[in-house]
Amino acid sequence: NAGVTQTPKFRVLKTGQSMTLLCAQDMNHEYMYWYRQDPGMGLRLIHYSVGEGTTAKGEVPDGYNVSRLKKQNFLLGLESAAPSQTSVYFCASSYSGVPGAFFGQGTRLTVV
Amino acid sequence: GESVGLHLPTLSVQEGDNSIINCAYSNSASDYFIWYKQESGKGPQFIIDIRSNMDKRQGQRVTVLLNKTVKHLSLQIAATQPGDSAVYFCAENRDNFNKFYFGSGTKLNVKP
Lengths: 112, 112
Hints:
The structure holds 2 protein chains of 2 kinds. By secondary structure, chain A is an all-beta fold. Chain A is built from no helices and 11 strands. Chain A has strands at about 5, 10-15, 20-25, 30-35, 45-50, 55, 65, 75-80, 85-95, 100-105, 105-110. In chain A, the strands form 2 sheets. In chain A, strands 2, 4, 5, 6, 9, 10 and 11 form a 7-stranded mixed sheet that branches. Chain A has a 4-stranded antiparallel sheet with strand order 1-3-8-7, with no helix packed on it. Helices cover about 0% and strands about 55% of the residues of chain B. The interface of A and B includes residues 40, 44, 45 and 50 of A.
């Protein structure tokens, strides 16, 4: 049972490049989330999904897109990376109506 | 705007002592709170939660206290151990049950 798995773990992008971060969970959770964490700060919600085929904006959605084509996967896309998107990205999942969320190990993204 | 925040960015305690980590919130409509622990290089891990209709909840070596009058949340860790060294975040549910907003975190250092 792997829990929440994020791919890749590290990535360096040049400004203007695009990439997709993959999150996979094997717990049959309905809810999935993408957060970003900047140094000395808490996690900020980018986008989330309450079920397959649905997505919604969080606190800081600009510059990101997401897709939830399959229940177990939640993809985060950066169409044109900017240095301000340098951060650690965390994916999480949870059951509907059950407290707390299970987090992945994070993806450290640097945009130069 | 309304936000979740923490009083102390860093807390140092002696091994075996009790630790108290504080969190202030400003949204009186928030009805659910969670404490997370984040070790270096890892994703946040659920510790304990509390609903707004409670003022205290206990877990294994941890207690969460909620004071709605002054909008204050605290996490007490009994007999602090080196393995408790981490950053602790409180998270607040504002909009719906499964979408949480995080404070900036308190780093707990446990001295042997």
